[in-house]
Amino acid sequence: MIMYIVSASVFGLALLLGGMKLMEVALRQWAGSRLPAALERTTSTPFKGFLAGTFSSALMQSGTAVTVLTIGLVNARLLPLANSFGIILGTNVGTCLTTELMSLRLHRYALPMLAAAFVIWLWTALSGEMRALPALPRRYAPPLRYGSAALAGFGLLLFGFAVLQSVGPTLQTSDMFMDMMTHAESSPVWGLLGGAAITAAVHSSSAVIAMSMGLADGGVMSPATGVAIMLGANVGTCFTGLLASLSGGRGGRFVALAQIVLNISGALLFYPLRGALLAAASWIAPGDPAAQIAHAQTMFNIACSLLALPAAYMLLRRR
């Protein structure tokens, strides 16, 4: 039983991470070359930067990727330091799209998505480099090619969620795991610290939150513990940006530090309020623990970003 639990959990998490990485790479190849210029043009005010960070993170399915890109632009002096703060605020909101989509219970369509993605990708290959079919118009070929790869990544992500969900009944028979969950229930700070540590290790807050959603949906983790893990995951996601900033200049380190301060402050602010956060999420999605965790994450990030937005304007005035 232990071997099945470990192998299924690792396999499900690997599918989540692999799917997210495939989506990120495909969407970056499609839109990434235009993204730096778009960020430069749309960050004249912190609110515009916030919208740009939200949209670009949702588009690329990776707030971490946009944060690292922002650090690079600041280090290259292509983006003013004061204008970068709005982008960082937006990345936390945009990254919620993945978990919100997962809360719609689309995992039942994972295999059809993978099949459709393969057919579309094969069509672009046969009409492109293989030259076995008539060539597609140039303006349609890249979106279809990279869009099919992104769809395949999303299908893998949903399939990984389904695998983690299926482990639930077996985990409920494990006394050791249920003791761990009981301990986490009585001491939510361990959930927060665990979420931060795992996120720092796998470099994906969305994957860690999705894993907690799958376990909550399987009945082996309470939504309250999932919310604590979510708060920790939002802290752990700063680790990648911190690493990316170490080799750059002071501007890049300031961007990474700003993200750390924002996310840690938000987690400390909402940790005592996690019950109210879960109550609001439960009102939106009663009886759906996975959706409650996803909605709690979205509300948490929107609230933190809006609370910190005035600070971005103060920073801009002192520039």
Give structural notes.
- The chain is mainly α and 319 residues long.
- It has one domain (2-317).
- It is built from 17 helices and no strands.
- It is globular and about 55 Å long.
- The chain starts with a helix and ends with a helix.
- The mean pLDDT is 79.
- One of its GO terms (cellular component) is plasma membrane.
Would you tell me the structural class of the helices and strands? mainly alpha
How far apart lie the N and C ends?
Answer: 60 Å
Radius of gyration: 20 Å
What is the count of helical runs? 17
Biggest sheet overview: none
Number of strands: 0
GO molecular function: sodium:phosphate symporter activity
GO biological process, one term: sodium-dependent phosphate transport
InterPro entries: Na/Pi_transpt
Membrane topology: Multi-pass membrane protein
Topology:
Elements: H1 2-31, H2 35-41, H3 46-60, H4 63-75, H5 81-94, H6 96-102, H7 110-127, H8 141-166, H9 168-171, H10 175-186, H11 188-202, H12 205-217, H13 223-236, H14 238-245, H15 250-270, H16 274-284, H17 289-317
Helix pairs in contact: 1-8, 1-12, 3-4, 3-5, 4-5, 4-14, 4-15, 5-15, 5-17, 6-17, 7-8, 8-12, 10-11, 11-12, 11-13, 12-13, 12-17, 13-15, 13-16, 13-17, 14-15, 15-17, 16-17
Organism: Cohnella lubricantis
GO molecular function: sodium:phosphate symporter activity
Pfam families: Na_Pi_cotrans (PF02690)
